[in-house]
Write a structure and sequence with these properties.
- InterPro entries: HD_domain (IPR006674), YfbR/HDDC2 (IPR039356).
- It comes from Rubellimicrobium mesophilum DSM 19309.
- This is HD domain protein.
- Keywords: Hydrolase, Metal-binding.
- It is a single chain.
- The chain is mainly α.
- The chain has a single domain, classed as Hypothetical protein af1432, CATH 1.10.3210.10.
- Helices cover 65% and strands 4% of the residues.
- A two-stranded antiparallel sheet has the order 1-2.
- The model has no long low-confidence stretch (mean pLDDT 92).
């Protein structure tokens, strides 16, 4: 129960990305739910051997570390670089604490799913990571650029920071999304 109570705090972590209507920032709990739905709806985009059930589990767990670390946007220039050694160390410490609230076997199972997602080496994790990257793109497109304007994101940055990961796990989806981002960026 302590883990479930702690997980509720994810709803209070505000993300840089707004809701599709641009009315407010989404929270990390909403983001995780939306990604689980993305996995279910876009399952036909998954590569061979991908278990959507495992992907959904990863996506529900993947951002719990933000309870301690907060959201570190991929395009942020706020001093904390997404994927930096400092952020990775903070996320690992958060994973130790949060998954440590669970009984041994369950905590180890959830931690292993989180680690697998972070490594993005298995087919399940590659697909999950691609969805995690594409969902904010879709949110930004839906609200006319959203945080791309805030962070001064260029088409080249989007392609190098996001497109590569999305294309790795869902190449057909990235082709479709790329056409829409090109329209937005005018390229």
């Amino acid at each position: 129960m302590a883990f479930l109570d702690e997980a509720d705090r994810l709803k209070s972590v505000l993300r840089a990305t707004t809701l599709c209507d641009g009315s407010r920032p989404e929270n990390s709990g909403e983001h995780s739910w939306h990604l689980a739905l993305y996995a279910m709806v876009l399952a036909d985009q998954a590569g061979p051997g991908v278990s959507i059930d495992r992907v959904v589990r990863m996506l529900i767990l993947h951002d719990l570390v933000e309870i301690d670390v907060g959201d570190v946007p991929i395009h942020s220039a706020n001093g904390q670089a997404h994927g930096s050694a400092e952020v990775v160390a903070k996320e690992r410490a958060a994973a130790d604490r949060i998954f440590g609230l669970l009984p041994g076997d369950l905590g180890a199972e959830f931690r292993a799913l989180w680690e697998e997602f972070e490594a993005a080496e298995t087919p399940d994790a590659v697909f999950a990571k691609s969805l995690d990257r594409v969902q904010p793109v879709m949110q930004n497109l839906a609200c006319g650029g959203g945080t791309w304007r805030t962070y001064g994101v260029t088409a080249e940055q989007l392609e190098s920071r996001v497109g590569v990961k999305v294309a790795r796990g869902t190449p057909g989806l990235w082709d479709w999304v790329r056409e829409r981002t090109r329209s937005y960026f005018g390229s």
